[in-house]
Amino acid sequence: MPHRVLAFLAALHLGAAGDLAAADLKPDESKTIPADAIRPVVVSADAAAVAGMKSQAPKATLPEGWELVTAAAAPLVTHPIMGCLDDKGRLFLGDAVGLNWNKKRLEENPPNRVLMLEDADHDGVFEKSTVFADKLTFPQGAVWLKGSLYVASPPGIWKLTDADGNGVAEQREMIVGGFEYTGNAADVHGPFLHPNGRLYWCHGRKGHKVAQKDGTLVHEGLASGIWSCEPDGGDVRWHSLGCADNPTEIDFTPSGDIIGTCNLYYSQPRGDTLMHWLQGGVYERADMMKAIEGLPRTLEHMPVIHNFGHVAVSGCVISKSGLFDPKNSTVEQQAGLLSMFVTHFNTQRVVRMELLPHGVTYKATEHEFLRLPDSPDVHFTDVIEDELGDLLVLDTGGWFRIGCPSSLMAKPEAKGAVYRVRRKDVKGGLAKVVNTLKFWKESWEIRDENEALKQLTGNQNARAKVQACQWIAEHPGKNPQVRDAVLKLLDSAVEPALEHAIMHAAQALFAKGGLPPIDTRNELLASRLLVLASQGENQADAAASLLSAARNVNAAGDSGLANAIRRTACAMPNGGEVMLPVMQKWLEESPASEMKLQMAAEIIEAHFKEVPVQDFVAAMLGSAQVSVRRVAWHILSTQTTGITNEKWLEPLEKSLAEAGSSDLGLLIEAVTRLKSDRFNVVLQAMVNDPKRPQSIRLKALSATSRGSKILSPEGFALLTQLLGDVTNVTARIEAARVLATVPLMKEQLLQLAGTIPTLGPLELQEMLKLVRKTKDADTIKALASSFAQSPVVGAIEESAFKTAFANSLPEAYDLVAPAIRQAAALTDAKKRKLASLASEVQTQGRAEEGKKHFATGKGTCLACHKVGEVGRALGPDLTKIGAIRTERDLLESIMFPSNTLARDYEAHAIETSDGQSLMGLIRSHTAEGLLLVDLAGQEKSVPHASIVANTTLTTSLMPMGLDGTMTEQELCDLVAWLRSLK
User: Fold this and answer.
1) Mean pLDDT value across residues 311-321
2) Residue 157: helix, strand or coil by DSSP?
3) For the chain, how big is the Rg over CA atoms in Å?
4) Which of 323, 342, 592, 749 could form an SS bridge with 389, CB 3.0 to 4.6 Å?
5) How many CB atoms sit inside 10 A of residue 33's CB?
6) Which CATH fold topology does 3-423 show?
7) 86-107: per-residue pLDDT in tens?
8) Using an 8 Å Cβ cutoff, are 63 and 369 in contact?
9) What is this structure's pTM?
10) Minimum mean pLDDT among 4-13, 287-296, 303-312, 578-587: which range?
């Protein structure tokens, strides 16, 4: 539908609250609209329309005993986003009219609105829709509190009140503002009412400048995070901040913990996560650290509950009814098990997360709950539990495009809906489900320092200690007993979430100084005190403490203190220069300490733009010790600044002329990062030398072809030859990477398209980048058709294909979509079996039979694994596997081996200077070389000096499909036996 028509339709709905835009108000300003300006817009569904909604629910997969019905559809709703229920059972929804506008256009004519839906006969289907508030920018979420609706719509949080009860909010007040947005939905979501009475909301990484009502600045920055305030807009605070792109929704556990969904917490590869947002937590992401610059950090790596992968998580809710929990057991509820439902925008799914207390935080297990397999234009955005225990699932339809990786084009004609998921034996109008959860008591009844101190020192419960630390962080005083108690906890080994809470309390207590001297003999306490000192007001003392600790760091082994020194030096604004005298001493040690060199490398990388630090790199490049030079080469090979210091060129040129084959690869990567043609003659000679190892020729070719330089016919011939080398995994992967980065002509792209069906998953991932190298429709279609023929197309997520084609030729995606969906369907079918199979293992698995299956080679397990003296120790030893892995874990390892790679069992592809290509696991590292175990179980010693390329593979040596070599009963027997091995 043309945008001008949509704009006209939108205009028909703009009128319920007069001429009022988000930009018209500032925080703490309110406006009451005159009664004669209010023109209520009400849509009622007649009996036929209601009957139609009841009959039009899409095909769905659900657990046994549950059903899906349509609770509201057009014309009652257009594109619902997020919402809430009030105390009368009315459903309030942020509703979009289908326009993908940026901030400027949204503020010029705010097009979206909040709808109020009513179900008068309580049959589960809404019959009436009223525009409760219009002229909103992008309403995403709502909560009802004391007769008003609080709504998140950029740039802030609004209080909307219908004082006269006619279904229209004539009173509007933005209680908190200052949150930036662009129109891509990564902005304010919520708010949500915590059991402590405060409103909490989420905000994406768009920037913010937030002030209290009196104008006092709360915080200004780029971080995303979780915020809160009192219902009147007072006492605004940030609860957690971080680097993630878009925290989307939160809910609260009975103990008041804040659990929520978050998009793009990880980036390479993308990972959308379930988070436990800890008070005062600053959550990192390696490629977005600028966003949290200057914030007080505790842990270097904050804990994450669950990584969903690239699914675009959206709304979530913790079930209060108990209907969804195993066996509907309140006993299990009392044991702490929670069910949380999460919507996946990209995959037409709602998943049920089983949350089980795990120390201070939670362990999550994912179960698919609802899926619409035949509805690609459905995009779930929210899930709400009503008083009957039903789930209301919001589908925003196909309109949203800005920043959405799963939508190739806006489809506003694909309207949204509200679906109801309910028990078949529980119909509308029955008695309300009893709430089985006993909710939070305010601050665990901590009211003063004495109670906090008692809980901190006398209670062995880690969660109670966290609550005490949180109270202390909010009420820091000068009580020496409290300080001593926190210092004592700083010197204790605890789990990360509790460590964060202790550090957070200590930050508040010692913000103005008063930290004890740092004694490096106590590494644990010293390391935490060093981090605290570096974030205090007295940076001179912090620098002195850093230097003192660095001079005394132990060179042997992996030291917690060394890690704190590295972290502190990286974070301090002048940490690089402060550390230069100590790092110079480290270079003079012979032999140089590997640990200290690694510390120096990370400190240099953090302060790479400082000229004294660059000069220090020049000294490393000219060092007499090759170990020192290698660290400098690595630093240059990974830099992303594009800096070229003239002092680096001469020692690099000398090293290129003298280096052995094992160092050339790293050296070439280092000079490739520099903006200099000084090395081109030497590099081209390497490309033309057939006696050189193929990986060296490839790296040299990549270096000479950087930027906009056209790839020569000879270079292209070499790359295509190596891409088809079935015996050399390393060469294939490297050739694919080079081809994905250099300019290519149409004829070359078409030739590469023909090779795509023969490639493995790693090369295929690189070849997907070719789609963006051309605007020629025929070429793009040829590439799409070739991807459709690949037997490993399912190794790449569907959203990656959609993103690749979105900006070139969206319709070409249709050529590869069926193959992608077929592969996904096969994988989904296996995933859906996991939960039921795990139960079958417990009830029907025969351990003794499983032992026989293993011994006779069923599933080929003993080809790579040992149990006692039986089998071969290529993969992890399974002798006591049942003590650390559940039935589900074991099944997932067999059915999806690459999803659960055990640490130190990653596959490596290695090329040697004599032309050998080896693949296997690295059994050990010695001074002489690597001990490699190949797929046949044969051990081979590979000298370090002979290794010219070593690629860590992201796929398991254990192939997919081994479960298909057994019957389901045999698989259950095998897993039952493995589970018994303790």
Assistant:
1) 92
2) strand
3) 30
4) 323
5) 17
6) Neuraminidase (2.120.10)
7) 999 999 999 999 998 989 999 9
8) yes
9) 0.74
10) 4-13
